[in-house]
User: What shape does this take?
Amino acid sequence: MNIAVRYYTKTGHTKKLAEAIAEAVGVKAETIDVPLADDVDILFLGSAVYATQLDTNVKNFISGISVNVGKIVNFSSAAILSGTHAQVKAAAQSKGIEVADEEFFCKGQFKFIAKGRPNADDCKAAADFAKKFL
Assistant: This one.
């Protein structure tokens, strides 16, 4: 099974989750600046909610995918809203890429909201979530 982990982060929160997922599935986590070079069965894609939206960079990454992707598994964090699944799914549908119904979501710190998150427990939960797809 060919697996990739890509993520976009402004604060480093999603990077923590991406690295935990990558370690659990035995690959390296890369930012979305690194395009997919080969077909993948599962793409773990991490992002966060910024001003209620999926960042344009993530949308552009999805629209620029030029290899076959069997399925995107979304993971995300946010201080207030509840994740990016619906927005990732909408962007992926325009490319004909399936998105898993399940996503991993955890709180991410913003100022005094969700202080210290994602934490070690969140990272372990993200790794356990990823293992379910192997």
